[in-house]
Design a protein that fits this description.
Blueprint (H helix, E strand, L loop, with lengths): L1 H36 L3 E3 L1 H8 L6 E7 L8 H20 L7 E7 L4 H7 L6 E5 L14 E2 L9 H10 L15 H29 L2 H16 L2 H7 L5 E2 L5 E2 L10 H24 L6 H29 L11
Parallel strand pairs: 1-3, 2-3
Antiparallel strand pairs: 2-4, 4-5, 6-7
Helix pairs in contact: 3-5, 9-10
């Protein structure tokens, strides 16, 4: 009798194994057909449990999220469009299911029990469950979690992460849908710009070709950079500093240090000297009245002398060994 029981068990064992394998394969085929028309899959507690419970001969990646406004998860809402791009692109490029991958979304409103079971306190959480049976099964079959610590991730980044954890097989590329609103906006803006330029061009050309305008722009840029503007941005220097006596110091000693106010004062000195020199070279010779011309020469010459005297005093402060100076500073 025992011999017949043993024989019966041995005969039924292959049938049971085949039935379990068929059930697993049928589960994948069923959900893969659903994903073709609705990717990524919308899951609830029951479908999540069904897809993630072993045995499984497929890979499933599930996004646990909280999309409703009452949960206040801005990262969830920002990432959801990217996740949908991943799901639709993968389904579009793998309609036969050769990669053996399912992509799904479990919202907190539909999966409170799952969130509690996993003891999740934050969202979104992207998990990937590798196969537990078949030639691509992993030894431990532990789920892998994606890191969202860097903020919203792009569809391309998530696609690369999923691809790294998949066995050999197809990797459908990302296909973003055409943004028709953006196309219309760019086209309208481009046509508007062309129309505006065609109308305004006769008025714009004289301004663009004005030598004085470009000379003024060039002079401003030169003064901006020679006064130390970029040095302040690179070194993050303070605007002013205390002098140790209850007051403030506008100039820092040494050539490798400076303050923000110092840069502005030096730029103002350079600008005044430049303007005075241009006035003496271009404006004064064109004056018809000799008396006014003489007064202008003395005025602009005095401004140059005074500002250069102040500039030398600043230079002496920056370099204590400099022996020269000009009155009155």
């Amino acid at each position: 009798m025992k011999f017949y029981d043993l024989l019966l068990i041995c005969g039924l064992l292959p049938l049971l194994c085949a039935a379990a394998k068929s059930k697993t394969a049928g589960k994948f085929e069923d959900y893969h057909r659903k994903s073709i028309s609705n990717a990524p899959l919308k899951l609830d507690d029951a479908s999540y449990e069904l897809l993630t419970t072993a045995p499984r001969d497929y890979t499933v990646s599930i996004l646990l999220t909280a999309l409703e406004a009452r949960f206040g998860c801005q990262l969830c809402r920002d990432f959801q469009p990217e996740w949908e791009v991943v799901g639709k692109s993968w389904t579009r490029g793998d309609k036969k299911g050769d990669s053996r991958l399912l992509l799904g979304t479990l919202d907190f409103a539909e999966g409170k029990s799952t969130f509690q079971k996993l003891m999740l306190q934050t969202a979104p959480v992207l998990m990937l469950f590798p196969p537990t049976t078949g030639p691509d099964a992993t030894p431990d079959a532990q789920s892998v979690r994606y890191d969202f610590t860097m903020g919203t991730q792009s569809a391309e980044q998530v696609h690369d992460w999923i691809s790294r954890h998949l066995p050999a097989g197809p990797r459908p590329p990302i296909h973003r849908p055409v943004n028709y609103l953006r196309v219309v906006t760019v086209t309208t803006a481009g046509l508007g710009a062309i129309s505006f330029l065609s109308i305004a061009w006769p008025y714009v050309v004289p301004v663009v070709q004005n030598r004085n305008l470009w000379a003024a722009i060039s002079l401003i840029i030169i003064l901006l950079f020679t006064s130390g503007h970029m040095f302040n941005h690179i070194r993050k220097v303070p605007y002013v500093a205390g002098d140790g006596k209850g007051g403030i110091s506008s100039f820092a000693s040494g050539f490798s240090n400076q303050y923000g106010l110092e840069t502005q004062i030096v730029a103002a000195m350079y600008g005044t000297l430049s303007f005075a020199t241009i006035a003496l070279a271009l404006k004064v010779p064109r004056m018809a009245d000799p008396k006014k011309q003489g007064i202008a020469v003395f005025v602009w010459g005095g401004i140059i002398f005074t500002m250069y005297s102040f500039l030398l005093s600043v230079f002496r402060f920056k370099n204590g060994g400099y022996p020269f100076h000009l009155p009155p500073f």
